[in-house]
Amino acid sequence: MTLVEEIRVGAAWVAEQATAVVVEHDAVAAYAAALPPRGELPGLDADAHIVDGPVELRAAFFLTLDAINFGSGWFPTIRKRDGRSGYFTVALGLRDRFRTRGAWTAAELRRIDAAEIAQVLGQDPAHELMALFARSLNDLGAHVADDHGGRFMGPVEAAAGSAVALVERLAGWYCFADASPYAGRTVPLYKRAQVAASDLAFAGVAEFGDLQRLTLFADNLIPHVLRLDGILRFDPDLIARIEAGELIEHDSPEEVEMRAGAIHVAELIAAARPDLTPQLVDQTLWTRGGGAFYKAVPRPRSRTTAY
């Protein structure tokens, strides 16, 4: 069984016994039918990402970005660019660094500290998230240097045209770690490893013949969208805690149920809509979550390096 199949199986298993976050199965078919067609889905934001230039540069940008594509639980406490979310604040900071000074080398990432990444992102170097970003980038640099001769295209080439193979490789690195305990079992989720494969494909860095095998990239935003859209039913006490601004503990049963439930819903949608893969469902719902309706309601927040 491949890692992405383990993610699917684990998510379905959690969804079957979940009590705090329950899939509204009867609502899925109509919801799937109402989602926009594949041709209307947005691509990467060219203003916030490096989508042209040498493939080594683009590979370096997206591996660097996705190694620190986490921290949503801290985002209300960081400095944001005008009109931009926490994610886009980070992406834009990296974009500016890459455009003005180029990519960090693997050796430089191996040594980067909180002060340097904070300066690039316009943040307080004492903020807890900056040390977590630096630690993740240190690990990325070490793997690219030691395993791939310092070439960011190395992991892509080693995957030999398989997004699944790339995810499995990245999943073994600390900087992409993402598995949670639930009812005595370890459930793999690996949001950012899968996002990296998807981003590299969208950026034209890699041609993967199996992108359709990826799952939804489980975070806190998509369960929020699915709750407001009536597809995930949250326990009233959980809703009250979220809307009061209480942090939901990472690896708690509720948090795992939110993420696993979203993955399982994407599988149900993809089964009902052959033109949409779980990856494209993710893209649709994550984009939808940026709308005013979804922003007006507090979303679940957890402080974790998973997302």
Main beta sheet strand tally, sense and closure: 2 strands, antiparallel
Radius of gyration equals 18 Å
Structural class: mainly alpha
Poorly predicted tracts of residues: none
| Main sheet strand line-up | 1-4
Mean pLDDT metric: 97
Helix content: 40-55%
Beta content: under 5%
As for the number of domains, it is: 2
What distance separates the N and C termini? 25 Å
What spatial form do the alpha-carbon principal axes imply?
globular
What count of helical segments does DSSP give? 15
Report the strand count.
Answer: 4
Order of helices and strands: HEHHHHHHHHEEHHEHHHH
Plain-language structure description:
The protein has helices at 3-17, 25-34, 55-67, 86-101, 106-111, 114-121, 128-148, 153-158, 163-171, 191-202, 221-228, 236-243, 253-272, 278-288, 292-295, and strands spanning 21-23, 179-182, 185-188, 232-234. The protein has 307 residues and is mostly helical. The protein has two domains: 3-43 and 214-295, no CATH class; 55-179. Strands 1-4 form a two-stranded antiparallel ribbon. Strands 2-3 form a two-stranded antiparallel ribbon. A hairpin with a 2-residue loop joins β2 and β3. α6 (114-121) crosses α7 (128-148) and α11 (221-228) crosses α14. The chain is globular. The relative contact order is 0.18.
